What we know:
This protein is mainly alpha-helical. Helices cover 54% and strands 3% of the residues. The longest helix is centred in the first third of the chain and has 20 residues, at 17-36.
Amino acid sequence: MLSSYLAHLAVERGLSANTLASYRRDLRRYVEHLRARGLETFAQVAESDVVAFLAALREGDEDHPALVASSAARAVSAVRGLHRFALREGVAGHDPAHEVRPPRQLRRLPKAITVAEVERLIAACGPEDSPLALRNRALLEVLYGTGARISEAVGLAVDDVPTGPAHDEDHDHDGDQDQVWLRGKGGRTRIVPLGRFARQALDAYLVRARPRLAAHGRGTPALFLNARGGRLTRQGAWEVLQAAAERAGLSGVSPHMLRHSFATHLLDGGADVRVVQELLGHASVTTTQVYTLVTVDKLREVYAAAHPRALH
Length: 312
């Protein structure tokens, strides 16, 4: 029965090899748990047996360490799917896991850095006009200015960023000059506005740096190039950020943290959560709403300053 269910997950559900390996490990442990309770068929399993398994996952034993909520939730999900499959295949006449819920996981709030820290980070790319410094500044401005994932940023082609005259206060681009095409998860493409700072940094890079870097390569359409003229990799972009963060005296900064900061600063500035959802490329607004929790401190600050009965 177990092998049939795993085959179903692989063939019909298309689960990845890593996920299948985790499910196989969790379900083998579940079958051992049932046998230890004297249960040999799925028809014999009661809800209390499934609940006992969940408790065992969280408590651990001599052979297994206690699982954190996320790992226990994955195991319970595997068990629930197995019993649904057994019911559908006629192996059992009831589903004892139907009402068993996985343990609630603590919601991890995205971390963000302040606007001042973002400015320090970008300034740490250096004022020099070397090709790599201009590239680094453009990369960080794009990451923070668009909320792009690092894979989306390094995946950009030159044609994804319409070129035009340098952006300044005395010259307005046409509408399509102030936007960038990002290719996100699931092959979805979205258009994100490009702010003035990011546009200026990109213009400087495209005019004064990229041609010099491209001269070392074989001709690639990639926007961001490495020192050899090839496409900058995710690892290379991560190293750019880490070096700038170290010079700026900031620790724990990651590309995803810049994405979090982009969303948090927009919401702090009054942006609607659905607008932020579109900019981030989230398929569901539920994913974006976690960022609203980050702004609680901002709400308290405004409340304390504005409400006449807020003073302690």
